[in-house]
Predict the 3D structure of the following.
Amino acid sequence: MQVYSVAQITGYLRDILESDALLADVWISSEISNMSGSSAGHLYFTLKDEASQMRCVLFNRKRLSVDIENGLAVVAHGRISIYEVSGAVQLYVDMIQPTGLGVLNMEFERLKAKLAEEGLFEPSRKRPLPAFPEKIGIVTSPGGAVLHDITNIISRRYPVVELVLAPTTVQGESAVPGIINALNALNDRGDIDVIIIARGGGSIEDLWAFNDEKVARAIYSSKAPVISGVGHDTDFTIADFVADKRAPTPSAAAELAVPHRDEIETHIGSYIATMAASLSNSIERGRQHADELYATASNQVNNEISVNIERLRGQELKLDSLSPMATLERGYALVQSHANGEVISNISQVERGDMITVQVSDGQFNSRVTGSKKGLQAWMKDFPSNSH
């Protein structure tokens, strides 16, 4: 015979209770009694009716959206487990509302608060929509008016885009897996720029698939940004809060997904005008720059010419000082043979009686050689003296 400890049995009961799908997600309608609080902010109370009662705990009273008190009829949501220290079965409450709001409304508020706390609605994680999408995925019923309206609006506004339908039921038991599979199929393609998830208006029961937690997480996990266009203006679903963009209607979702062709033409005209003005300004700046470069180059060329002219003048003066005529002007003469024009540079080239031509600064004359003396010393010796 096997003997168990109390802890083993309470642990076994806890595992059984927490593995039960019903007890893990349960709504209970009853009346509050024996309510008390702790310094940590937890609330302890009992839910009771005519036949029975259940202990409850709500951790962190800040999660309460309403004030509760003893005697108040409420509907509470939570999970049932066992508190092993005392061995008591109790409801671990995560949401509580006064009776009369309706279970679906309360479930909506509960899931909304849960997902908001997890950050699924955080504005900072929402992605911008592409300005010029090439492919748009559509998750909706293939036979409804919603698809017809979306197609007409997009084809009129932006006919170049390709629409890819991922058909699904949008109401009833098959809607939740259908919507999730459609979203996954579009994301698996890898070429979808934005996804529209849409259906027409209806009651909260009709729209309930778009309040499902699994659908919300599929939208959150989408690779492409998602536009939610579910219901009418006053309808809000969990899908609206988690989507990257919420549209009040399916038609508005189509308008958000694409630009209007008139807007594109206006933008193109504006871009052309801006580019033309920019080009004109660039040309004008270039022309001014060219004028500046021309003026600078002209000044440099003129300066170079002036410098070179001065250099040439200097060379001209040097050449003039070395020219034969300048030498002749200083009293020297050029002597040539009259017979053959040979320049006479020494006395061995002439003999007595030879005719010579003498060139001086202002002309020439002929002469005959009557004698010669060699050397400058001999010439100076015969030169008349000025001594007294």
DSSP finds eleven helices and 13 strands in the chain.
